[in-house]
Amino acid sequence: MIEALRGPLKLFESTAKCPVCGGESLEVSVYMYFIPYFGNIVMYIYSCGNCGFKSSNVGVLEEGKPKRVIVRVRGEKELRYIVVKPAKASIRIPEVSLEYTPGPYSTGYITTIEGILHEFQEAASIACQHAETPECPKILDWLKRAIEGSVEFTLEMCDYEGTGKIAGEEVVETDVNECGRAES
Fold first, then answer.
1. What's the CATH number of domain 67-178, 3.30.1240.10, 3.30.428.70, 2.60.120.1040, 3.10.20.30?
2. Is residue 9 within 8 Å of 2, Cβ to Cβ?
3. pTM of the shown model
4. CA distances for 157 relative to 62, 65, 121, 126, angstroms
């Protein structure tokens, strides 16, 4: 393992072809940074000076094999668990059939379990604006109560890159092939 860093360390910088405008103006920077409980992470930052395209990705530096990461959220304590979510990782909350499936332009990021709930809430609010379904108010109410820490649920991250992590107690890692299966 690489020793803990005291600040970001630039590992690489280059210019490449932008996937949006095609110009040779995409600045690519790769940094390594130490985060307590996670160790060293790597951050990829892409920015085009021509068209304004921006993207980023993040993952733990000590790459592992693909995995399923599960945590049972019982209240406010677990809502504060830190999550390193790689670009290609999916997130599920099976109790309410919520799922985030990454697309080709998904990015990795660092957040908390509460932050993930806020993302689901924002997406559900947008989706429900024009939907005439009785499920929308139920999902939005459930998300509000989950953010407040008043409902228990399971959060599952299917990490196909092996670079994600959830820092907390009773976090279980299993084989990625078990993604989407009910807990035994």
1. 2.60.120.1040
2. no
3. 0.76
4. 18, 14, 17, 23
d(CA 150, CA 110): 24
Residue at 183: amino acid letter: E
End-to-end CA distance of the chain, in Å? 34
- Domains of the chain, residue spans: 9-60, 67-178
Beta strands in 24-159 (DSSP E): 26-35, 39-48, 54-60, 67-73, 82-85, 90-93, 98-100, 109-112, 153-159
Burial of 65 (0-12, 13-18, 19+ CB in 10 A): exposed
Alpha carbon 102 to chain centroid, angstroms: 10
The rounded radius of gyration (Å) of the Cα atoms in the chain is 18
pLDDT beyond 50 at 155:
yes
Convert the pLDDT of each residue in 137-154 to its tens digit.
999 999 999 999 999 999
Q: Select from 81, 73, 71 the least CA-distant residue to 150.
A: 73
Which residues neighbour 71 within 8 Å (Cβ) at sequence distance 6 or greater? Answer: 78, 81, 113, 154, 155, 166, 168, 170, 171, 172
Which residue has tokens 């393992």? 1
